[in-house]
TrEMBL record:
Gene3D superfamilies in the cross-refs: q2cbj1_9rhob like domain (2.60.120.620)
Protein species of origin: Streptomyces mutomycini
Signal sequence coordinates: none
One Gene Ontology MF term: dioxygenase activity
Full protein name: Phytanoyl-CoA dioxygenase family protein
Pfam families, per database record: PhyH (PF05721)
Keywords annotated in UniProt: Dioxygenase, Oxidoreductase
Coiled coil stretches, renumbered: none
InterPro entries hit by this protein: Phytyl_CoA_dOase-like
PANTHER family, alphabetized: PHYTANOYL-COA DIOXYGENASE DOMAIN CONTAINING 1, PHYTANOYL-COA HYDROXYLASE
Domain of life per record: Bacteria
Upper taxonomic lineage: Bacteria, Bacillati, Actinomycetota, Actinomycetes, Kitasatosporales
Length: 280
């Protein structure tokens, strides 16, 4: 067991990622996918801020299926092997790619948008496949070892609508030969450093792709400025984040109030981070 943990930690430190990692059983993945689709229909019918923030950053605060995943023993064990025994969930995100959709994301890093101190050693994004994840359905591609460069400058790749939709891209050349496609079967996951340079492609298949991402952090992480919140899921939490509570049921009134407060707080911080980046 110790050897396996050390090997995982070494892979993560050297390459900036590790996959494929077994996490959910096929039955658990199928149940999560069904619950995810039900959740998306529900928030779409509600509309407003609930629909606006359906895909990020606090799904686990209102949806019991997401809360169940962030507490899954296999995922907690993975996060603990990389970060230590004290764990918080800072964010949850859904990444979907509909069948025959042409959308793609440029080479970029997540870290530059998040406004976190200490992410370099004390944070990990775990990307769980709720469906099979392949090059054909637009899975992520990692640029091996790119996390070691730290946070990089980003730029827009062009002025056409396609360039804008692809998002900002790192202002350095990416060695395509160093890239690797994150191929997973439903229930498996990958783990990557928040400074990992990555991209994703179009889905040319007849089936939609669903991935659920969890940002685990240790209490050593702090927001760069302003209030933020996180959910303690193992061990002790940290004083740098306001505490969050697990939902008693799907869309419980207390959970919804917490969700609205937490997402507003997070969006204010992200907006400030983006504005600061644009002026420096």
């Amino acid at each position: 067991m110790r050897t396996a943990v050390n090997n995982l930690r070494d892979r993560f430190r050297t390459d900036g990622y590790a996959f494929p990692l077994d996490a959910l059983t096929p039955e658990e993945a199928a149940r999560a996918l069904t619950d995810c689709r039900t959740y998306l229909r529900a928030v779409s019918s509600v509309g407003g801020a609930m629909a606006q923030y359906a895909m990020f950053p606090k799904i686990h605060l209102v949806a019991t299926w997401a809360d169940r995943l962030v507490h899954h023993p296999a995922l907690l064990g993975l996060a603990e092997s990389l970060l230590g025994p004290d764990l918080m969930v800072w964010s949850t995100n859904l990444f979907t790619r509909p069948a025959h959709s042409g959308g793609s994301l440029a080479w970029h890093q997540d870290a530059v948008y998040l406004g976190l101190n200490g992410y370099q050693e004390h944070a990990v994004r775990v990307w769980v496949a709720l469906t099979d994840t392949t090059a054909a359905n637009g899975t992520m591609r990692y640029s091996r070892g790119s996390h070691a460069q730290g946070a990089l400058a980003h730029r827009w790749g062009g002025t056409h609508i396609e360039d804008i939709m692809r998002g900002e891209e790192v202002a350095v050349e990416v060695d395509e030969s160093s890239s690797v496609a994150v191929v997973l079967t439903a229930g498996q996951c990958s783990a990557h450093h928040l400074a990992m340079v990555h991209c994703s492609g179009a889905n040319t298949t007849d089936h939609s792709r669903y991935n659920f991402a969890i940002d685990y952090i240790s209490p050593k992480v702090r927001p760069t400025e302003g209030e933020d919140s996180a959910l303690t899921v193992r061990g002790e939490g940290g004083s740098g984040f306001l505490p969050e509570a697990r939902p008693l049921s799907d869309f419980h009134p207390d959970a919804v109030r917490q969700f609205y407060a937490a997402t507003a707080r997070r969006q204010a911080r992200i907006d400030h981070t983006v504005r600061h980046r644009s002026t420096t």
